[in-house]
Amino acid sequence: MNDSRPDPSLLLTRLREEEGTGRGHLKIFFGASAGVGKTYSMLQAAGKLTEEGVDVVVGCAETHGRAETALLLERLEILPRVSVDYRGTTLAEFDIDAALARKPQLILVDELAHSNAPGSRHAKRWQDVQELLEAGIDVFTTLNVQHIESLHDVVSQITGVLVQERIPDSLLESAAEFELVDLPPDELIQRLRDGKIYVSERAESALNNFFRKGNLIALRELALRYTAEHVDVEMQRYRHVHQISEPWPTTERMLVCVSNSPLSVRLVRATKRMAVALKAKWYVAFVETPAYLRLPDSEKARVVQTLRLAEQLGAETLELSGESVSEELVRWARTNNVTKIVIGKPAQPRWLEVLRGTIVDEIVRKSGMIDVYVITGDAEGAPIPWVKRVRSSRKPAYYAGSAGIVALCTVAAAVMTGHFELSNVIMVYMLGIVIVASLYGRGPAVFASVISVASFDFFFVPPFYTFAVSDTQYLVTFAVMLIIALVISTLTARIRLQAQSARLRERRTAALYLMSRELSCTLNLDDLISIGLRHIAETFESKVAVYLPNFEGVLQVLVPLDGLDAGVAVWSFKNKQPAGLGTNTLPAANALYVPLFGAKAVIGVLAIRPADVDRFLAPEQLHLLETFGNQIAIALERAQLADDNERARLQVKAEQLRNSLLSSVSHDLRTPLATITGAASTIVEGSASLTVEKCRDMASEIFHESERLNRLVGNLLDMTKVQSGNLKVRKEWCPIDEIIGAALNYVDERLTNRHVRILIPADLPLISVDSILIQQVLVNLLENALKYTPDGSELVLRASVSDQVAQIEVADRGPGIPPENVEKIFEKFFREERSDRTGVGLGLAICSGIVEAHGGRIWVENRTGGGAVFKFTLPIEGIPNLDHLENADD
Amino acid sequence: MTNQPNTPLILVIEDEAPIRRFLKMALMDQGFAFEEALTGREGLTVLASRCPDLIILDLGLPDMDGLNVTKELRQWSDVPVIILSARGQERDKVEALDAGADDYLTKPFGISELLARVRVALRNASKNSKSTVESNITFGEVAIDLAKREVKVAGEEIHLTPIEYKLLTTLVRYAGKVVTHNLLLREAWGVGYQAETHYLRVYMAQLRRKLEQDSAHPRHLITEPGIGYRLKL
Fold first, then answer.
1. pTM confidence score
2. Which residues of B touch A777 (CB under 8 A)?
3. What ipTM did this prediction achieve?
């Protein structure tokens, strides 16, 4: 039975459709030919919608001088056209920027197949329409059947007219609605005669050419059939969206093989039609053989174009590589469950077919269960616009070289003749041919084979110095010699080509590998970009820039380059397509803009300005460029992800810090406040039993708690200063003992029940510090010691200087620091778990901040014999100027 | 109310009501006459009309800052001024002291600290007006005889360099009061050494070693970090 489980790819398409709600809807008024009334119907429909209150604007509509059409147009808002100067004449074109700025609900854009004037944003109007749809604007447009890409050959077969303006099928398939505007051929011809379509003098010639009745009937049938197919597709889509289960068609998979032949385009179109009819998935394959590498760039470009066309028509394209086309094709077909292979009829002469056999024969023989379709077609000499034919200028030199080598062989042979048999002389020539083949390739080798036989005959076969031959046996010798020479030269040349192709591949792979290895070494965004750009610049001999969106999503150039057009980059970014040099969009730009595809979205745009445009636009180069771009995009995405992770981690940490601050502060502020409030209210409400004595006790309680609060607030303020980086260190030369003295003075009253020992050598030099801040460090360390050590214990203050570093220590005989806390103790809000001590745990963090701001280090050690010793160092930079000191005081 | 000769009048210029109230209570309790002003302008007016014996001046006033009040009143009055300021405003304090203020107190402060400062300021003022300088001063084990230029520690005469002696006598002159780095530098070296505080620090360290029992934990030659020194008798 049929499995009702939906095909994942269909689900994906549906998902995209549901996602695409932000996209505008496209309605196409479709007709068999001009004059059936498409524009009229469109305007009528628009008029009705305007009455219903829809915001409709006419982007462009051609009335062709028809009065009824013009009348309809009067009732609608019309967008002014933009004037484009082209070779002296001014063309009024549809203004896409104005349309996007106006952003109506619905816009009317007549004649989808129109080609824009050179210099416009897009080469074709359908690209404008696509952009409008992307911007969420609904579009009404008109289209004649002959402009559909996949019907193009059929139409040209019927009418004999080659249509230049074509619309990719993928756009039409995405159209929400198709409205067929139909008129029977007889009526159409009548309208034409009445002058309703063209002015009468043009009408006559039209009637004799395009508008012949036979043509019109055929075109009408095509239009009807196409509409029917579209309706069918819509029906299917409806079923998917509404989960109507139906027997899923057995999945046919078609594979079509293309080559550099101009017929390949036709093959692709034919397969597309078959695939649509069979509802099959279809693949277009190209097999890269050694022979392909010998082809001129124009031929290679044709292959790339064919593959691009296939992609436009909705195929999946693949490039295989190997010795034999048939073998690679069949192997791929088998492994991928292809049910039908489509190939072109070979165009070689009959005798060659007999001699070498054909690819068709080979495929038919090897294909086994797979059906094979063989298709023929007319040549379509499509001009290739963007690749100049590069002639190898070295060819004549190769032939001269091969002649030279044969001449050398002749000299060597002449030396040998007296001593060796003629058969050995032949060997010298064979050696020469092998050398020529390996150095210069097949053509020169064949040439060398022929002249070798000729010189052998001329110089070494009697009668000498004439091409005449006395012994007919030599004719056999010549024939065998020629055949062997040809075989050797062909084989050697093939090996050489393969080696060349392998080298090329290796170079590409090596370049790519090198880049990806470097990219994998770093997660720093700037480094990644500079690595990627450097590699692309080197490999493609170009200047490269990159655009990335900033936090607001606005595209910004990171590595600027002269003469770039940010507008093109933005277009490429938004439309996820390459633009600029060598593409259909804004080809006049001087750089190529390639979107960087990450796993989720386009993450930026690469702008490349090549030094040598011709070489840059060679097809292999463009493919390689895409691969490079993808690598960079993935690396950038990875870096961005890592960045996001890091930011999230920091946020969590900051959050934790804030929480611990809030809990510590609220606890440590409330405890003294509670005491103060309690004591003060007792005094205020003073009952009779309250003695003066008790009042004084309570007041002193209030006093102590206030002091505690004051210290806490001071610490919080200091921490904020250290934290915010606003800590200004004002260094002055200062004696260490003065700072220590000031600190001791500050905590004086609380030191009374500790034994303080001060060990400072008398000859300490001045140190350059901010005395107020360092005093603060000492005060905090002393307060810390006071807090954690018992009454009557000993405190030792020690200072020393060695190697331009001053070290100050505060040692106590308290409980010491648990080893696991030795590092953590300088962190903010860290406090040892002991319930009887209070404080936010900021004091040591402030010390650490101040010492670090001085370029010093602070740490804690446990003392032998119990207790902890806090040590910090301060670098001594330079020496104080004490010149005037001695002079003034003698 | 007339100003009794033996009850000095103290003018408090402070915009915070709770602090004014606390000062009023504490000072009147100690037998001082009390007058208050909420702004710098008002303070200057009261100063002109009531001629107080001492001013307690907040550095942060709503209309003009305390530094400017000090500068203005010093143009026509030599009434002692005690500055009130918050912690971390060392620079402002030094400026006010150099502009002629006599001493400072850092908020929050205890009443004993305030009264000590007030007494020192009043004593210095009366000493200056009577221009009778005591020639014999003692603190701790130190005895100074200004007339003989003689300094003894625990009965032993100590040799002081001219600059050390100059510094010591300057501190003695303002005994109990803070003396800024600037003033000490000017007195000992003359004008033009204002930036060379480290000279001063070196000499003060020497002086401490000669006069204090424990120079790292001085009892009399007290450092006021970032401001100057104070001789505590």
1. 0.47
2. none
3. 0.84
